[in-house]
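Glu/Leu/Phe/Val dehydrogenase
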Amino acid sequence: MSGPLTQSELASSGVDVFELGAEHEQVVFCNDRATGLRAIIALHSTALGPGLGGTRFYPYATTDDAIVDALNLSRGMSYKNALAGLDLGGGKAVIIGDPAELKTESLLRAYGRFVQSLNGRYFTACDVGTSSVDMDHIARECDFVTGRTVAHGGAGDSSVLTAYGVFQGMRAAAEQLWGEPTLAGRTVGVAGVGKVGRHLVRHLIEDGARVVVTDVHAPSVTAIREAYPQVSAVGSTEELVASELDVYAPCAMGGAITDQVVQVLSAKIICGAANNQLAHPGVEKQVEERGILYAPDYCVNSGGVIQVADELEGFSFERAQQRATGIFDTTRTVFELARADGVTTAAAADRLAERRMREVGRLRGIHLR
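Predicted structure tokens:
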């Protein structure tokens, strides 16, 4: 997967969305002045099926930042869905604004009508700043919504299986490095204990790991320490990264693996839930040179999309969890291919995803409902 775009690249390009989104099939700008809705829907590829990806509600500093995020995230969903074995393409949406101030039923329903206008080329779901209840509002205007509440026949909180999948990927990494698929006795640093991170902490504690956490949202840290008094906390991600760790789990926003982080990190495994963790192309080579095993983010964090995709068949948590368990074997396969081909684990994951998009996608072309 080509590296993430940066805001400076967007600015220097003269805001040429066709150039920046050269890989993308479609980018839709949605504007409803009455509700304050400003949204961008990006469809990267529908070669394997309709694009599926969440809607992020976030106070981007500029529209340029929102475009970059939508393009990067939708590309990531194509690779994630392909590697997860789903017959779904990659799409993602962002709504610009602070959800605490701007989110209303009317705005969400207006957004739902824009999604509906794509006639099934894009299925939406939850992401940062949106919830299953929000999906229920969107679904009042739209047929192409997943991640709905259990009361409305949906999968509910997709972070449950996202965390479960990350834990399976972490087990595979532990087996690769230490010979046993367990984190027992290892120190795991979790950066971000929100929706996904808090569930991941539970799996780690149950497996016998020592856990250190941090989060910019202090109440989230407090809640974790009340639930698990044995968990330690530090004041910042910088402090966490500089700690003595066996595993580093970025579970907040993207771009977590920077040159600076790689230089100071003591952990031997990076495996977390955040999307687009590599800050720039080439940083994955630095990770490998330092002897750190990187479990590619879109490989291990696909449990959530597996969970919401299961709604399209009539949701069964047991079936979705069984599919998410397969993330252990998929991660293993990535490591094996990396070793066999002499490439980074990030490159190996890309090769597997691209192979499936190429071989299966040629049978389908651009998705039409």
